Amino acid sequence: MNSNEIEIHKELKKYFGFSQFKGLQEQVITSILAKKNTFVIMPTGGGKSLCYQLPALIQDGTAIVVSPLIALMKNQVDAIRSLSSENGIAHVLNSSLTKTEIAQVKKDITSGLTKLLYVAPESLTKEEYVAFLQSVPISFVAIDEAHCISEWGHDFRPEYRNLKNIIKQLGQVPIIGLTATATPKVQEDILKNLDMSDANTFKASFNRPNLYYEVRTKTKNIESDIIRFIKQHKGKSGIIYCLSRKKVESIAEVLQVNGISAVPYHAGLDAKTRAKHQDMFLMEDVDVVVATIAFGMGIDKPDVRFVIHHDIPKSLESYYQETGRAGRDGGEGHCLAYYSYKDVEKLEKFMSGKPVAEQEIGFALLQEVVAYAETSMSRRKFLLHYFGEEFPDDGEGADMDDNVRNPKNKVEAQDQVVKLLEIVRDTKHIYKSKELVFTLIGRVNAVIKAHKTDTQSFFGSGSDHDEKYWMALLRQVLVSGYLSKDIETYGIVKITKAGLDFIKKPVSFMMSEDHEYNESEDDAIVTAAKSSGTADEVLMGMLKELRKKVAKKLGVPPFVVFQDPSLEDMALKYPITLTELYNIHGVGEGKAKKYGSDFVTLISRYVEDNDIIRPDDLVVKSTGVNSANKLYIIQNIDRKLSLNDIASAKGLSMDALIKEMEQIVYSGTKLNIKYWVDDMLDDDQQEEIHDYFMESESDKIEDALKEFDGDYDIDELRLMRIKFISEVAN
C-alpha cells in the first residue's frame, strides 16, 4: 500500500470501524479524491453511500448530496452524526426546515463544520440557496439515485433534469453519479444529462449468487400457496409485494387469520402506523410485511429470507430492487413471483391514460418483465443480460433458479436462428420483436403494411412455427449476443457482428421451449390441486360409500349430504375435527354439525391407520369478506324482501345473488325462499321439481334442464334447488 492507500484505510477504520473496503469502494473513493467526475453503478446493498461519505468526511469543504427521498436523507444524516461528536457534521436542507434551522445549517457550513449537506433536487433550484452555496467551498456534488434523471429509469423525476445547469453555477466541482439500476440505456442518459461523458465509470456485478429465483403460475389458489410457502419458512422474515393497497390489506388479513404474524404497509396508512409497522418488522415482532411497491426503500434488514411478488412488477428494475431486499447478509433469499398474463393486461390498461411517449416506455419495460417470466432459460442469466452483464453458465449461483433446476426440453434450432437473423438483416433494422415475429409467421399489421414488408419474398418464411416459438427463440438469441436491442429507439432489434458471422458459419443452437402460462380459470384450479397433491383416491371411495349410507338412512339423495367437490377437498386435506371441516370447500358450520361427525371419525381413523402426514397448512381460513353479504342476504330473505331488491342493494346480478344463496344453503344454512318461489311456480310445478331432485342421482342443473326439456328456465330450477336443499338437507 502506498501512503495514500494507508491514509484512506486509516480513515475508514476511524469513521466506520471497518478494516477493509467492499468491492469497488476503494477505487471509487480514490477517483473522487483525485477530483475526477465519477459514475458508480452498484446494486442496492452494495455499499454505495460509503463511496461519497468517506471522501466528504476527509476533504476540505462541504459535499452536496442530492437525494430524492426525505426519509432516506434523514436516515443517512442520523447515521453520520452518530460517527461524530459534532451534530453539525451532516445536515438536511429541504422544505421541512424552519427559518431558525436554515440559519443554523448555513452557519455550520460557513464555519467549515458541515461535511455533508443532503438536499432534495427541488431545494437546489431555489436562488437563495444557490447564491449561498456559491459563496462557500464545495468539495463535490454527489447525485444519489441518479436513474431519476432518465425517463428510462423506473423512478423518473423531471426536476432531476435541471441539475446540470445548477451544478455549473457552483463552479468547477466534480460530480459523482450513483445508481442501483443499470440498463445501458439509463447509464447513457445519466452521463449525457449530467454532462460528464469523461467520468470514470465503476460498475459492480449485479449478480446476487445467494438469491433463488422462481416464477409460478398465478391461480385462484394463490392465497393457500403463499400461506403454505410461509409456513414452510416458519419464523423467517419476508416481504410480499402487491400492486394495490386493497390487495395489501386483504392479503395481510388472510395471513393473520391463518396464524401468520403479518402487517400491511402502504401510502394510505398514516405516517405513524407506517413507522410502527416498519419497526415491528425490523424488531421481529412480526414475520411478514405485505406492502405496495413503495415499501422498504429505507429498510436495511439484512435477514429478509423471502420476497414474494403477488403481482408482477412494472419493470425488471423494480423487480431487481425488490427481490434485492432478500438475503443482504449473504444468507438464504428466496424470490418467488406469481405470473399471469391477465395481470400484464391490467397494467397495460392503467398505462393507456398516459402521454404516448410514456406509454411507449411503459410497454417496452413491461415486455421485458413478460419475457423474464415466460423464459425457460436461466433467469439469472436473463436478468444480468438485461443489466448489461454477461453471466457464464458455471458462474456463482448458477443453479439458484427454478429453470436451471427443472430444465425444459431443448431442441436444435440452428436453421431457425439463421432464418431469424436473415429477417433482421433483410428488413434493415426497423422492427421491434413483435413485427419481426409477425414477418416470420406471415401476419400483417399496420406497421408491416406501411413498410410493404408483406410483399417481400421472405414474408411468412417461418410459418412452420408459431408466434410463441419465435418469441422464445428471439429472446434466447438476444441473450446469446447475435442480436441486440437498440437503446435510443427502445426495442428496435439489430443484428450484431457475431450474428452476421453466424449466418456465414452456423453452429448448433439448443433452444429451450418457453413456459405455458395461459391456462384458463378452471384449469387453474385443477393445476393447483395437482401441484398441491391430488385427492386421495382410496379415501374418496370410502367417503362416497359413507355418504351413500348417511343419505339412505335420512332418505335423501347423496348430494344433499355433501357435494362431490366437498368430498374431494376432504380427501385432499384430511380434516379430523368439525372446526377443520368448516373450512372445507362448500361446508359451513351448519352442515358440519348436521352431517360432519361420521365423516371426521372416518377420516381420522383412516389417517391413523395409514400413517398419513396431514397437510394441516392446506386448510386456509378465509377472512369472511363475503360474510357481510351473506348475513345481509339471510336477514333480508327472513324479512321476505324481493330478491331483485336484495341483489341491487348489494350491486349483484341475479346470477351472482343465486350463486351466493347456493353457497349459503350448500354449507348448511336454511334460506326460506318459499315466498319468492310461490310467485313463480304453482304447487304442482314445485312438487314435480321437488320429486325430481329427491329421486335424482345428481343435482346438476344441466341434467334437470334435459329432464324437463324446456318446461322450466334455468333460474326457476336453480331457485327450486335452493328451496329443496334448504328444506331437505338443512
From TrEMBL:
GO terms for molecular function: 3'-5' DNA helicase activity; ATP binding; DNA binding; four-way junction helicase activity; hydrolase activity; metal ion binding. Keywords: ATP-binding, DNA damage, DNA recombination, DNA repair, DNA-binding, Helicase, Hydrolase, Isomerase, Metal-binding, Nucleotide-binding, Zinc. GO terms for biological process: DNA recombination; DNA repair; DNA replication; SOS response. Its EC number is 5.6.2.4. GO terms for cellular component: bacterial nucleoid; cytoplasm; replisome. Residues 29-200 form the Helicase ATP-binding domain. It comes from the Bacteria. InterPro entries: DEAD/DEAH_box_helicase_dom, DNA_helicase_ATP-dep_RecQ, DNA_helicase_ATP-dep_RecQ_bac, Helicase_ATP-bd, Helicase_C-like, HRDC-like_sf, HRDC_dom, HRDC_dom_sf. Residues 221-378 form the Helicase C-terminal domain. SUPFAM superfamilies: HRDC-like, P-loop containing nucleoside triphosphate hydrolases, Winged helix' DNA-binding domain. Its cofactor is Zn(2+); Mg(2+). The keyword DNA damage applies. Residues 533-613 form the HRDC domain. The keyword Zinc-finger does not apply. SMART domains: DEXDc (SM00487), HELICc (SM00490), HRDC (SM00341), RQC (SM00956). It catalyses: Couples ATP hydrolysis with the unwinding of duplex DNA by translocating in the 3'-5' direction. Belongs to the helicase family. RecQ subfamily. NCBIfam families: recQ (TIGR01389), recQ_fam (TIGR00614). This is DNA helicase RecQ.
